[in-house]
Amino acid sequence: MLSEQIISELKSIVGKHNVTTEKADRICYSYDATQKSFLPDVVVHPGTAPEICDILKLANRERIPVFPRGAGSGFSGGSLPTRGGIVLCTERLDRILEIDEDNLIATVEPGVVTEQFQKEVEKRGLFYPPDPASLKFSTLGGNVAECAGGPRCVKYGVTKDFILGLEVVTPTGDIITTGGPTMKGVVGYDLTKLLCGSEGTLGIITRIVIKLLPLPEAKQTMLVLFDSIDGAAQAVSAIIRGKIIPTTLEFMDGRTIDCVRQATGLEVPEEARAVLIIEVDGDREFLDKQVARIAEIIRPLGVVETRVATTSEESEALWQIRRSVSASLRKVNPDKFNEDICVPRSKVPEMIRKVDAIAERHGVAIVNFGHAGDGNIHVNIMIDKKIPGELEKAEKAIEDVFKGALELGGTMSGEHGVGIAKAAYIPLEITPLAAEYMKSIKRALDPNNILNPGKIFLDEANPAGRGE
Question: What is the DSSP letter of 160?
């Protein structure tokens, strides 16, 4: 535990009401969506960038680890306080500072909830496309730290594609700005892109400059049932080859359909073994033509049934099928390992076959769904931890899934990040020389290894511990 003197100093920096050492409070900040738990020594809620500077200067002086945290919704353990220390929560930094309608940019603090921001800009006819599944509660600072994705990135790109500049507190307690409110800028290294996706290891984001787009006039949604996953994957490539880039191209495999059918009463023909949810947006007058053209392109690829939403309510009903997936998986088994591999989209069928073989080899249930438009597959390994040996089976299956993705030219993580969940597997994807290059950046910026230590790269001399 930290000394009373250090706790007193933290209270003098942020105010006594913004520091807590009560165990019940600390437990609330000890876990994320991985369900792993590490208890911090103290939770601090700064309200300004200078306060964060003072906290980090104190932490460097006393060699106390600091773990930045937004909403704690990550799937890789990136915000977990694996070594106790200070959880630095950005919840109070929650202001939308400016929405500039002339230049199509906004400036926000990191604690702004993603959906709240989207709704605010849409009131003005503007659009912020990144839409992670956690958008109703995840914060923009966390989205930047993890470089969050979502269904719409097939057309619009991921978070880093919309970040023009940042204000950041460095690990040693200084404030820097990167980028700015211009669409172009090539002076010096691109620190904005370096920090986007750095998982809170290189700095604490305190202000974000975001690029906006005009809000599309309309959108149209269709749900297409296929008789095979190969047909669905071929449809994705065929649509894009046909010079149509849909807003989203979401897929579900046969096992996922079975889960959703049981959980929601969804009426799906028995011969349907894959689903695509396809959405297009843009000028209203072109949408019907686009939908008709898509239907024409995919018709020879084993289409069982096509449902097109004609109202916003019908569109929402189609999307509700996709949103029901995660909850429905518990019908398979109570415990889930959610991996987010990414492969070239033409390789999706081959990857699904690999996953099926892995499931059979290790005797575990695996359910697949995700973003077919960019090859991002959410591989859900479903087990019951109470059964002896199940956890070991899952761990072996996870490693084989990662290896399978890499064999196809893919990656272990398309959007969840590394954190602690994938850190042990880094050598499978990143060469020792490239890893050392990255570690040298961390050492240069954070010489005392204060900020989010033990994330991305395992430190064998001081490994993360105390997880439950």
Answer: G
